[in-house]
Amino acid sequence: MLTDPAVPSSVLVVMAHPDDAEFSAGGTIARWTSQGAHVTYCICTNGDKGTSNPDMDPREVARVREQEQRAAAAVLGVRDIVFLGHPDGTLQPTLELRRDIVRVIRQVRPEAVICPDPTRRYGAGFINHPDHRAVGEVTLDAIYPSARDPLVFPELRDEGLEPHKVLQTYIANATDPNCVVDIAPSLETKIRALIEHRSQVTEERLRDFLPKRSAEVGQRFGLQYAEAFHRIELS
Predict the structure, then answer these.
(1) Total domain count for the chain?
(2) CB-based contact 225:27 (threshold 8 Å)
(3) According to the model, what pLDDT value does residue 158 have?
(4) How far is Cα 113 from Cα 168, in angstroms, rounded to an integer?
(5) Best CA proximity match to 65, nearest among 40, 46, 83, 52
(6) What would the mean pLDDT of 109-138 be, rounded to a whole number?
(7) Position 235 pLDDT exceeds 90
(8) What is the pLDDT of residue 124?
(9) Which candidate, 23, 74, 13, places its Cα nearest to that of 44?
(10) How many Å apart are CA 200 and CA 151, to the nearest integer?
């Protein structure tokens, strides 16, 4: 088990919804930005279904959630965000979505990418959102081989976007973690970032849930608080 890997110089975080990055890897992102990493978010949906109020206008939900995402990212030291704007709840692992993500990879040219685990369908007390699974599958396919190979999506080269090889992939909430990051120094920052998602969560709930969840992960690896990943080093 690798603990506290070397901080990548540049990181692209690809997630389905506003707030996914903070829940999945907020402590790690906070630590890495504090140590000089340049982190960019790619949020695939506009989060327009993220309400229990049937009378809400989805366009207003999307507007609020984008504002919340920008505020949360800023708490973690993230300034660059790409919003792909796909409708919430309907993502599929299509070639079109893969092209969108390849485009962002070739624009950002990150050393490392963080994405969801496409194989995680359920666990104790939860069913994983299908958007999460779709984004994980498409992002891995985008990293290898599509972003790397010049003849894949030749239209992107016509846009001036040359191939790029990602060197490390961190799969968040993985079923088989092999890498852990100590987030004891950054747990409070993660909580403060998630508080910005006011339409989705309450501070009271976060301050109860997040320390418990981070401690459960950390206990498995001898740490007080942790986030775990499956790390792939690409040769």
Answers:
(1) 1
(2) yes
(3) 95
(4) 6
(5) 46
(6) 96
(7) no
(8) 82
(9) 13
(10) 42
- Quick one: DSSP state of residue 226? E
Quick check: helix, strand or coil at residue 201? coil
Query: Tokens in use for 177?
Result: 């973690």
Which amino acid makes up residue 216?
E
Residue 123 has pLDDT above 90, yes or no: no
Whether residue 225 contacts residue 184, with contact meaning beta carbons closer than 8 Å, is answered with yes
Distance CA 4, CA 225 (A): 12
HSE value, Cβ hemisphere, 13 Å, CA-based, for 118: 12
User: Tell me, what's the pLDDT at 118?
Assistant: 97
What gap in Å lies between CA 175 and CA 67, rounded to an integer? 31
- Kindly give, in sequence order, each residue whose CB lies less than 8 Å from that of residue 192, ignoring residues fewer than 6 positions away: 75
* Cβ atoms of 110 and 11 closer than 8 Å: yes
For residue 131, give the CATH number of its domain: 3.40.50.10320
pLDDT greater than 90 at residue 208: yes
Q: Helix/strand/coil (H, E, C) string of 20-85? A: HHHHHHHHHHHHHHHCCCEEEEEEEECCCCCCCCCCCCHHHHHHHHHHHHHHHHHHCCCCEEEEEE
Domain that holds residue 129: 2-233
Q: pLDDT of 154-197, one tens digit each? A: 999 999 999 999 999 999 999 999 999 999 999 999 999 999 99
Helix boundaries (H) for 77-228 = 95-108, 130-141, 154-158, 187-195, 203-219
